[in-house]
Write a structure and sequence with these properties.
mainly alpha; about 70% helix; about 0% strand; elongated
Length: about 170
């Protein structure tokens, strides 16, 4: 007696497949976000500065802001494709990312651009916010991207076509 495998994946198998694909996509996005920081670090080391000179420069805060912004895009995209019953969860997640991630990274960026020399505490805060940005991007980004894949990644349908090119009597 042979057991045939199903031709269509089970929901659990599909979910695992979507999460795996989303993980690769998020890692790819993360590599391109971090790429300019790697280049700046290579240049810093080649001109005789420390590998940790990046912590003193505002580029790390700028990278944090990009990470939090991209996280918001992934979350909103995932929720838009899955069309949850209520808007409370996506609103809460996006608000949390803005309040605890995007705003602090932009405040630290502004302080780094206006204070010279850069205080040690601000350098530590910048590095911590960047790490938080990477973690948030990976955690929420994988989930949002997987939701988009799970629901086909198709563009959202608009219930009513736009009024452009309609005769006036049909409006």
């Amino acid at each position: 007696m042979t057991i045939e495998t199903p031709l269509t994946p089970t929901p659990l198998q599909a979910n695992k497949s979507h999460r795996k694909a989303a993980t690769y996509a998020i890692f790819g996005d993360l590599l391109f976000i971090v790429l300019p920081l790697v280049v700046i670090s290579i240049v810093d080391v080649s001109v005789g500065r420390s590998l940790f000179a990046l912590i003193e420069s505002p580029e790390l805060s700028f990278g944090s802001a990009v990470l939090f912004g991209q996280t918001i895009i992934k979350v909103v995209s995932g929720f838009a494709h899955s069309k949850p019953s209520g808007a409370e969860q996506p609103v809460f997640v996006v608000a949390m990312i803005i309040v605890f991630g995007l705003v602090p990274s932009l405040v630290v960026l502004a302080l780094l651009l206006s204070i010279n020399p850069v205080p040690y505490g601000l350098q530590v805060a910048q590095a911590a916010i960047f790490v938080l940005g990477v973690l948030a991007f990976f955690t929420f980004g994988v989930t949002g991207h997987a939701e988009s894949l799970h629901h086909g990644g198709k563009p959202l349908k608009i219930s009513e076509p736009p009024l452009v090119n309609k005769p006036i009597d049909e409006i």
